[in-house]
Amino acid sequence: MSPVKESAARFAGKTRLSLAVADCTDFLAALPDDSVDLIITDPAYSGMNNYLKLGRGRIVGEYKDAGEEGAKWFPEFIDNPPSFSRFLTQCQRVLRNNRHVYIMFDSYSFISLAPLVRNALDVKNVIVWDKMHIGMGHYFRRRHELILFASKGRRSIPSRGMADIWEVPRIVRPHYPTQKPVALFSRMIECSAEPGFTVCDPFVGSGSSAVAALLAGCNFIGADISSRAVDIANDRCTELLATGIDPLEKTVQLASA
Ligand SMILES: C[S@@+](CC[C@H](N)C(=O)[O-])C[C@H]1O[C@@H](n2cnc3c(N)ncnc32)[C@H](O)[C@@H]1O
Q1: Considering the entire predicted model, what is its pTM?
Q2: What mean pLDDT value characterizes the chain?
């Protein structure tokens, strides 16, 4: 593997959690073919910052700990169509057959990049994540994000009675910028994974997807280009597994806790 750093928690001799500092595409490129059972991911798109002309400010920037004016919360994925296509090609390659993918998009990236997913995977649905409270935004303030649901091969979901609008409250005062609720990833996993599956998130951030995977008895493999993010995610998962409680969302607990 190319990652600079890799950390793993081992249980009964079996690796359940593996986190690496790496670029998303490099990370996936180092994995074998057909080695992942589910991809759930929330990329740091750069398009909204770079191209969307809204008011005076950038969407992501000036985070209070960032230090310099205009500094970003975290590195952004250069999400032009060629780089996003390379990323998608790797997603398709590492995914086993008859498995699912969930890729989150802000509305700007959805317009520019989501159509490319059709070249790599079978797009099944666009799910609306209703955050239930308005956030920032110009003109109409944002209350939702989009989740593109796709498959490689055929796989059903457990029920035909589920809507494509998911009401999950946003995290208020997050520990990590753009930290997503564990419940959001748990819903993806409930619909598309079984205990023992290997769940993958190449933009792991604070590790909310990893927590959801561990809660469901899945293995988790993930990466982030930021070593700070990987440290946060690793500490978070280690504490969850040691105490049964998610230190970043205290109401989230392992069933046995
Ligand atoms: C939107 S955040 C993910 C937040 C995460 N879902 C959570 O709940 O904490 C996106 C992450 O992508 C990372 N990132 C940016 N560019 C990347 C790249 N080229 N490869 C991998 N990770 C990258 C950022 O450091 C950031 O942590």
Answers
A1: 0.90
A2: 86
CATH of the domain at 210: 3.40.50.150
State the Cα–Cα distance between residues 33 and 31, nearest whole angstrom. Answer: 7
Structural domain count, the chain: 1
Would residue 254 count as lying in a domain?
A: no
Q: Would you state the structure tokens that stand for residue 202, as one six-digit string? A: 């190449």
Measure 73 CA to ligand 1 centroid, in angstroms. 10
**202 pLDDT higher than 60:** yes
Judge whether 251 lies within some domain: no
Which ligand 1 atom is nearest residue 23's CA?
A: 20
Pocket test for ligand 1, best of 25, 45, 74, 78 (most atoms within 8 A of CB): 74
The structure tokens listed for 10 are 């081992």
User: What SS3 state is found at 91?
Assistant: helix
Q: Among 12, 34, 28, which residue's Cα sits nearest to residue 20?
A: 28
Q: Examine residue 248 and state whether it is found in any structural domain, yes or no.
A: no
Quote the domain boundaries for residue 135: 7-243
Q: How far is the CA of 205 from the centre of ligand 1 (A)?
A: 5
- Which carries the bigger pLDDT value, residue 200 or residue 76? 200
74 lines ligand 1 (CB under 6 A): yes
